[in-house]
Amino acid sequence: MQLKDKVAIVTGGGRGIGRAIAIAYAAEGARVVIAARNTTQLDEVVAEIEANDGEVLALPTDVRVRSEVENLIQKTVDHFGRIDILVNNAGVNPRGPFLEATDAEWEQGWQINVMGVVYCCRAALSVMKQQGSGNIINVGSGMGQVGRSNLSVYCASKAALHGLTQSIAEEVWEDGIIANVLIPGPVKTELSKPAWENSGTFRAQSDPWKAPEQVIASALFLATQPPATGMTGQILSIMRRNSP
């Protein structure tokens, strides 16, 4: 029970990586809050966690909307009294050539992948600062380090996320708060389905596609870092390679 009595929020917690992390944290004793837009998926995760005697609260949330994020944070505190861990996992991945990417795709990608994290971190940090401790885990991407064609929106937003995380880490470490990036590598989710349906590996003879559950060990490692002395401002990549 590595996370016994910890309170963890997981955005994008209804499916894929977020679902796997939420279920794993609950199994390790955390009281978990899952946030997503799809209520049916949230209900399914709640049922699975509660079937295994876990404690969970589902809060439908669109991270693009600041008021909804603030509601997520406030209701978490009202229900559980604190916030120990925030996992910013919600994301989108528009695909297509740079010259064909629309303003709407750029706005959606930036609003969810960057501003959604800004809203969540800003609201959660006000609580964590009062507590004198906290742990922020932002799910990044190797494509935020090495850009790829036809993924300009995703690559740019994830690069921004990495810089944002490191900047936050520098500002809050004296408050007993840590912030790190987790790069899972290629994972079979709905977000990545257009790619993995047509490819045995992410790159030829390189990264094999993972199941979401294969990210759990690294997500637990980051979640169990002690906020007062643990690693912060770091990018933890579990990719096999990091090349174009």
Tags for this entry?
alpha/beta; 7-stranded parallel sheet; 7 helices; 244 residues
Structure description:
- By secondary structure, the protein is α/β, with parallel strands linked by helices.
- The protein is 42% helix and 15% strand.
- The chain contains 7 helices and 7 strands.
- It has helices at residues 16-27, 39-51, 66-80, 103-131, 152-172, 193-196, 216-223, and strands at 7-11, 31-36, 55-60, 85-88, 134-139, 177-183, 235-237.
- The protein has a 7-stranded parallel beta sheet with strand order 3-2-1-4-5-6-7, with helices on both faces.
- Helix 2 (39-51) links the parallel strand 2 and strand 3.
- The longest helix is centred in the middle third of the chain and has 29 residues, at 103-131.
- It is globular, with a radius of gyration of 17 Å.
- The mean pLDDT is 91.
Distance between the termini: 39 Å
Write down the oligomeric state.
single chain
Count of helices? 7
Order of helices and strands: EHEHEHEHEHEHHE
**C-alpha geometry:** globular
What is the percentage of strand-forming residues?
15-25%
**Content-based structural category:** alpha/beta
Count of individual beta strands: 7
Mean pLDDT: 91
**Which regions have little confidence, pLDDT < 50, spanning 5+ residues?**
none
Instruction: Note the main sheet.
Output: 7 strands, parallel
How helical, in percent, are the residues? 40-55%
> Radius of gyration, rounded?
17 Å
* Physical arrangement of strands within the biggest beta sheet: 3-2-1-4-5-6-7
Please give the structural blueprint.
Layout: E1 7-11, H1 16-27, E2 31-36, H2 39-51, E3 55-60, H3 66-80, E4 85-88, H4 103-131, E5 134-139, H5 152-172, E6 177-183, H6 193-196, H7 216-223, E7 235-237
Parallel strand pairs: 1-2, 1-4, 2-3, 4-5, 5-6, 6-7
Helix pairs in contact: 3-4, 4-5
